[in-house]
């Protein structure tokens, strides 16, 4: 085995991706439906390999530049993801969910700082406990940023490597309950309050037309329909397309085929006997006037209509004032189908009374001219693209580093957001601008996911490997118990306070509030479990805004946990 570890020590890239691969594999394993996830697994695998190697006298260590680079890419990716929703949370109903997130994050930070100072835990524990108890892995990086920036005073004889090791150790000890605890608490909060969340969800579904959780994702039903008819009704022979639409405005003449040739269906075109006319419109309208033109036929040339798929970014404030009935009555709305509504990077259920917010993203499918016209009324149309604007990525990263370099006096020292916090803010700024302008900065979801997933797991894997060397010299049973107790308290108390605030003060629907509690902890697992528990998608309504706000706050709080916990 010594030869294997010596080989890994001399081949750092193999060591890194071996750790990442094992972390992904271990993270996929579940017990009773719960698993570590690849990030927590990366800490365990990295530390385990390093400790195992040290037993053979081999010190495994990876480059800190690589660690920082991947973490910075991750932080910028997080900013890109939460930016539009974070900015949008500053007004309207988003303020309530934002307040839930702020309360949860501040209480979590306060409990961690008080616990660390009361029990006199070693440097590094505050950042690690916050990251683990709040299941915000990104806080590990901001905690290390505080150490590297020199705002944390290290006791005599304590090295930065030991502090980094303690951050990783504290994170690993508190993460498991941080994950399982918030899932169980969110799942059973309504029962402990004597509330039937499933019934509350049904009432919400009925009132707002939201589909329940047991409705299949894919359905054969579509709102729009396209059918072809052979003109046999002599009433329309010699009449123009405009004549037909004037009497029947609920339809759209999509194609006209005459003698095997497709004609442009402009308003002046006049029909001839045996023309094949393709009509589009709402499905129910297509069946109300059967025989209007003639018998229905299956004509490929007439029905071979290219459909368009695009994202529509909602920016028009006037659209937000319209009711669902008024939106459906807009020109072209009956020729498209909304397939997904995304808010802050999180899909949310679509109901008949769903209220749109600025910066919502609607994914639609339909006739190209209808998609274009409706998109221009709502805001901006964004066509799918696999290309990434690397120029904007580079400029955004530079902006983030410049923001991170800003310092201001506080707590007896010069502090600032640091590189990580600066990149997070930069990502929020860039994504907010891109969501409004859309002529630059394209970063497809797949590319952003690579920035986040690979960036975080590589960073955490390197932290684990580099921390493993000092792990055995710092870990004791008493210390582990103290760390767990502080993490347990910091994880368990905030959800109860957030629930009470939403239930008694804001009078939120309990099913929606379950999602708000999960979002306030920036963890999708509890929301997913809540939706399964009450068999409804309603919890996802309360999730996105709180999720975006808490994601930003908890990441930055890793820095302040280190600063305040010393």
Question: Describe it for me?
Answer:
It is a single chain. The two termini are 40 Å apart. The chain has 21 helices and 12 strands. By secondary structure, the chain is of the alpha+beta class. Residues 214-218 have low confidence and may be disordered.
Please provide a brief summary of the model.
By secondary structure, the protein is α+β, with helices and mostly antiparallel strands.
Task: Give the helix/strand layout.
Blueprint: H1 2-10, H2 12-27, H3 37-54, H4 64-88, H5 94-119, H6 125-133, H7 138-148, H8 160-192, H9 197-208, E1 224-230, H10 241-247, E2 252-258, E3 261-263, E4 276-282, H11 283-286, E5 296-297, H12 300-303, E6 307-314, H13 324-328, E7 336-343, E8 346-348, E9 361-367, H14 368-378, E10 379-382, H15 390-404, E11 408-410, E12 413-415, H16 418-437, H17 445-474, H18 477-505, H19 510-520, H20 524-534, H21 544-564
Helix pairs in contact: 2-3, 2-17, 3-17, 4-16, 4-17, 4-21, 5-6, 5-18, 5-19, 5-21, 6-7, 6-8, 6-18, 6-21, 7-8, 7-16, 7-21, 8-17, 8-18, 8-19, 8-20, 15-16, 18-19, 19-20, 19-21
What is the C-level CATH assignment of the domain at 307-382?
Answer: Alpha Beta
Major sheet, described briefly?
5 strands, antiparallel
Classify the fold: give the CATH topology of the domain at 307-382.
Alpha-Beta Plaits
What percent strand?
A: 5-15%
Q: Span between N and C termini?
A: 40 Å
Uncertain runs with pLDDT below 50, 5 residues or more? Answer: 214-218
Say which CATH homologous superfamily of the domain at 307-382 is assigned. Regulator of K+ conductance, C-terminal domain
Q: C-alpha Rg, in Å? A: 28 Å
Q: Tell me roughly what share of residues is in helical segments.
A: 55-70%
Secondary-structure class = alpha+beta
CATH architecture of the domain at 307-382: 2-Layer Sandwich
User: Largest beta sheet: what is the strand line-up?
Assistant: 3-2-4-1-5
Mean pLDDT: 81
Count of DSSP H/I helices: 21
Number of strands: 12
Query: What is the molecular shape?
Result: elongated
